[in-house]
Amino acid sequence: MRSKWITYAERQIFYQDFSGYSFLDMEPIKQELIAVQEVVIQAPENSVLVLADFRQTRIGKDLMDLLTASSNVTKSHVKKTAVLGVTGTKRILADMLIRFTGQPLSFFDQEDAARDWLIK
After folding, report:
1. Helix, coil or strand: residue 50
2. Per-domain residue ranges for the chain?
3. Phi then psi dihedrals of residue 47, to 5 deg
4. For site-directed labelling of 97, which of 61, 65, 68, 113 has its Cα 20 to 30 A away?
5. Tens digit of pLDDT per residue, the chain (120 long)?
6. Predicted TM-score of the model (pTM)
């Protein structure tokens, strides 16, 4: 699993590393999502600060279906989610994810800005 807990300003953030994946090879993404989901659901409800990194990731409908299913399972455990690397077409798909799951996401271009927002 590439995703991991990081400490920022003495707060724990679960860094979900989906950077560089392609929807052309779904298996690694699927395995990462399963591993991430297992970690998040172990945490108390409304407690996890998530930094999801989708920089240089190619997203298609199949990946959106996986993300939606995973989000539905984990959303009660997540307090806030900051997302990196979601622009253009990916932003349209992300807005669909928000509508399908009801889980709010905030989008950032810079990792420092995302981490600062999470800990506020």
Report:
1. strand
2. 4-119
3. -125, -20
4. 113
5. 999 999 999 999 999 999 998 767 788 888 999 999 999 999 999 999 999 999 998 877 777 788 888 999 999 999 999 999 988 777 777 788 788 888 889 999 999 999 999 999
6. 0.89
